[in-house]
């Protein structure tokens, strides 16, 4: 193996959300966590060396992002990875993807307007929409034998409402792992253009896509609606650098871009970029492409390990290999247990923390979302603990 993704690194004692603060969500410390979506895998050497050299410099003053080195790295990455032509003028810095989404919703709609979202949905979306005093309008994805599909009839009905102003899109989709096909994206754009609805697309998982899938940035299918499309993303999932700070958005609409930058700098005082986050993005995009390719292969094998284990040892759990992300979306609906019973057993019997499906939508309480962005030994240990918990539940039922 060219890169040692099997190496186990102890993250405890580093103020790590996933490991050190697992008790906050699950009520018990010292659980083996498969929760928040970062990885237990170190960033590529190119990034680590660049950060080490920058630390040795010793001065960490106010830093600009609006230069060719940063924006050129982004433009070239999109050209190489997605055959996408991105104008450097469209690229703007942002402290986080959720910040970008929140500010854009504020600019493109009024209080009480509708924000249409495919559900199940990334769990940060709903509280953000609620806090902005917009109406959350779910467009439920259809589970077709484990593969999620868009309900276009329902989507058009929701977009046609006079108060519908925004489609909050997720591509690739979290938590289901769908990679949207070109025809699906084109139909989404057609409907949004028809009903004059803006598209805010969270594409933070764009680089973790499994063969033969291919991510298509929303800007590539936005003919006739380009000024109504807003792409928000980051290198954070790709290189495991969310703690370094920083993201970027691609905003073809010049008026919204100007308003966004005014808000960033003059209202919120956030225009000075994170030094480590910006440097890591540049170095990763310029020098770590081979590392990403190897990482994706490794993560796909982790998913295969989940599939094999469940098929052999926990066949009542249904698992369809995702097309993207390192988030295994596991269907427990064929088990005789409630979500509460299963979570209680996982935590207290298995000593393992796996996200409950209800976090992502009202109709997904029978699911688990398991983060497999980690060495394979951890994945296998987590699955064994899951089996321990489920076996005990069956014994309690007298099976």
Folded structure, characterized:
With 399 residues, the chain is an alpha/beta fold. Helix content is 41%, strand content 16%. It has two domains: 22-43 and 289-397, Alpha-Beta Complex (Aspartate Aminotransferase, domain 1); 46-287, Aspartate Aminotransferase, domain 2 (3-Layer(aba) Sandwich), CATH 3.40.640.10. The protein has helices at 17-20, 22-26, 45-57, 68-82, 97-108, 125-131, 152-159, 182-194, 236-239, 254-267, 275-287, 289-313, 339-348, 376-397; strands spanning 32-34, 91-94, 114-119, 135-140, 142-144, 147-149, 164-170, 198-202, 229-233, 247-250, 318-319, 327-331, 352-356, 367-371. A hairpin with a 7-residue loop joins β11 and β12 (327-331). α3 (45-57) packs antiparallel against α11, α12 packs parallel to α14 (376-397) and α13 packs across α14. The model has no long low-confidence stretch (mean pLDDT 97).
Structural topology:
Elements: H1 17-20, H2 22-26, E1 32-34, H3 45-57, H4 68-82, E2 91-94, H5 97-108, E3 114-119, H6 125-131, E4 135-140, E5 142-144, E6 147-149, H7 152-159, E7 164-170, H8 182-194, E8 198-202, E9 229-233, H9 236-239, E10 247-250, H10 254-267, H11 275-287, H12 289-313, E11 318-319, E12 327-331, H13 339-348, E13 352-356, E14 367-371, H14 376-397
Parallel strand pairs: 1-13, 3-4, 3-7, 7-8, 8-9
Antiparallel strand pairs: 2-10, 5-6, 9-10, 11-12, 12-14, 13-14
Identify the notable features of this structure and list them briefly.
about 40% helix; about 400 residues; 14 strands; about 15% strand; alpha/beta; Aspartate Aminotransferase, domain 2; Aspartate Aminotransferase, domain 1; five-stranded mixed β-sheet; 14 helices
């Amino acid at each position: 193996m060219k890169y040692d993704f099997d190496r186990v690194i102890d993250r405890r004692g580093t103020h790590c959300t996933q490991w050190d603060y697992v008790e906050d969500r699950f009520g018990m410390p010292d659980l083996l966590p498969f929760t928040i979506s970062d990885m237990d895998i170190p960033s590529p050497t190119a990034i680590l060396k660049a950060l080490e050299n920058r630390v040795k410099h010793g001065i960490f003053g106010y830093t600009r992002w609006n230069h060719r080195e940063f924006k050129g790295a982004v433009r070239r990455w999109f050209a190489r990875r997605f055959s996408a032509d991105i104008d450097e003028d469209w690229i703007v810095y942002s402290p986080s993807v959720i910040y970008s989404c929140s500010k854009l919703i504020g600019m493109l709609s009024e209080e009480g307007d509708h924000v249409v979202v495919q559900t199940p949905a990334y769990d940060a979306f709903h509280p953000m929409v609620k806090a902005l005093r917009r109406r959350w309008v779910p467009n439920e994805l259809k589970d077709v034998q484990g593969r999620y599909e868009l309900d276009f009839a329902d989507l058009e009905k929701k977009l046609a409402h006079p108060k519908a102003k925004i489609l909050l899109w997720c591509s690739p989709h979290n938590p289901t792992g769908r990679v949207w096909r070109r025809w699906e994206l084109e139909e989404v754009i057609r409907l949004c253009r028809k009903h004059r609805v803006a598209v805010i697309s969270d594409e933070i998982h764009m680089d973790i896509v499994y063969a033969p899938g291919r991510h298509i940035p929303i800007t590539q299918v936005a003919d006739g609606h380009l000024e109504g499309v807003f792409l928000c993303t980051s290198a954070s999932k790709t290189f495991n650098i969310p703690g370094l700070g920083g993201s970027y958005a691609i905003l073809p609409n010049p008026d919204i871009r100007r308003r966004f930058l005014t808000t960033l700098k003059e209202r919120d005082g956030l225009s000075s970029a994170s030094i480590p986050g910006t440097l890591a993005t540049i170095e990763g995009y310029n020098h770590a492409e081979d590392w990403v390719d190897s990482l994706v292969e490794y993560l796909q094998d982790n998913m295969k390990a989940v599939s094999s284990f469940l098929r052999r040892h926990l066949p009542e759990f249904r698992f369809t290999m995702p097309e993207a992300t390192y988030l295994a979306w596991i269907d427990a609906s064929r088990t005789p247990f409630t979500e509460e019973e299963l979570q209680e057993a996982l935590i207290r019997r298995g000593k393992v923390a796996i996200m409950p499906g209800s976090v992502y939508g009202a109709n997904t309480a029978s699911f688990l979302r398991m983060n497999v962005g980690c060495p394979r030994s951890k994945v296998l240990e987590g699955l064994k603990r899951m089996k321990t918990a489920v076996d005990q539940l069956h014994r309690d039922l007298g099976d």
